[in-house]
Structure formats: structure tokens, C-alpha cells
Amino acid sequence: MRVLVLGIVACACVVAVAGGCHRQQQQRKEDAARAKATRKLAGDPQQRAAEDDRLAQEHLNTAEKADARAWLADPAHGPAAGDRAALAALVEGLHGDGVKETFVTDFASRGQGSVAATLVIVLPTDAPPRARSLERIGAFLRGKGLTPIGDTRQRYVLLSLE
Questions:
Q1: 114, 150 in Cβ contact below 8 A?
Q2: What pLDDT does residue 149 have?
Q3: Whole-number pLDDT of residue 9
Q4: 104-108 long-range contacts, Cβ below 8 Å, gap at least 24?
Q5: Dihedral angle sign, alpha carbons of residues 11, 16, 22, 24
Q6: Nearest residue to 106 via CA among 70, 55, 142
Q7: Which is it for strands 113-122 and 77-79: parallel, antiparallel or unpaired?
Q8: What is the tens place of the pLDDT at every residue in 53-74?
Q9: Which residue of 8, 16, 66, 105 could cross-link 71, Cys pair, CB 3.0 to 4.6 Å?
Q10: CB within 8 A of 58, min separation 6: which ones?
Q11: What's the angle, vertex CA 152, arms to CA 53 and CA 94, rounded to 5?
Q12: Are 134 and 99 within 8 A, CB to CB?
């Protein structure tokens, strides 16, 4: 009887590990496809902005999102990679520029807190605050060696925090 129980437990463990491996493999395929699509769109700002808007809306439609300001108020929270203070300064600056909503998504536990992998910025529609916000985002991206899109009348800016 003991051998039968151990055999069943061992089989269950193998199935659980195999299922986890399959999910990880599927996630890697999806990530690779998304990266390929992003590289393809990189040369066309209009298409890149449209894709960012689509992805941002997907992020906002999930239950796992938080207001960036409130979430960053907890010192145990921060970006998946990079400087927490720089992210907090960016978010506060954007709100000072006229952005009404910023959200963090894609959470993971780290130590006693959590990290976010994505920042979604809902851009203002009025021209002066929109221009100030896009300039601030552009400076943030250029500081990381990245090229900002500019204003293509996109609704959102999606920033990776990894």
C-alpha cells in the first residue's frame, strides 16, 4: 500500500512539474512573438503607438493593476529593475504635468514587498499638459538609451520597468 501511495504522489509531482514547464514554455513563445512584433513596429511610430495603446488597454483590463502613486507610497514596492526613486519622481512629475492616471501592472513578489514590470500612463488630451508629459517621458527614455515615440495622438504610453 505504501509503495502505491508513493507511486501516485510521484506521478502527481511529475504531472505538476510538466504542466509548469509547459506554461513556462508557452510564456516564452508568447514573449518571443511579442518581442518580434515590437522589433517589426520599431521603425513606424504610428504603428508602434497603436500597438502600445492595444497592449496598455489589455493591462488596464486586468484585475492586477494598481494606481502607481499609491502603490509606490509603500517603500516595499518598486520597479522590477532600475531605481525606485527615479520611477517615483517620474510618476510624481507626470501628475504635476497634468497626467490624471498612472498604473503599475505585472507584479511579482520580491522579499517582503513586490515589484511591477509595467507602467501604464494615460496621457492628457489637452495640448499643453500632453506636451509636457511626453517631454518628461522622452527625457526618461533617452536617459535609458531608448528612443521615445513622440506624439502620434496615442492614448497611452506603456513603459517596461524591467
A1: no
A2: 80
A3: 46
A4: 104/65, 104/66, 104/68, 104/71, 104/72, 104/161, 105/59, 105/60, 105/62, 105/64, 105/65, 105/66, 106/59, 106/64, 106/80, 107/64, 107/66, 108/80
A5: negative
A6: 55
A7: parallel
A8: 899 999 899 889 999 999 999 9
A9: 66
A10: none
A11: 70
A12: no
Q: Which residue has the cell 502505491?
A: 4
| Three cell numbers, residue 13 | 509531482
- Residue 66: the pLDDT is 95
Tell me how far apart the alpha carbons of residues 124 and 115 are, in angstroms, rounded to a whole number.
Answer: 26
Q: What is the pTM of this model?
A: 0.72
CA 10 vs. chain centroid, Å, equals 37
Conformational region of residue 77, where left means phi above 0, alpha means psi within -120 to 50, and beta covers everything else: beta
Ranges in the chain, pLDDT < 50: 2-7, 9-19, 36-41
Question: Would you say 85 and 119 are in contact if contact means Cβ atoms under 8 Å apart?
Answer: no
> Do 99 and 140 meet the contact criterion of CB atoms below 8 Å apart?
no
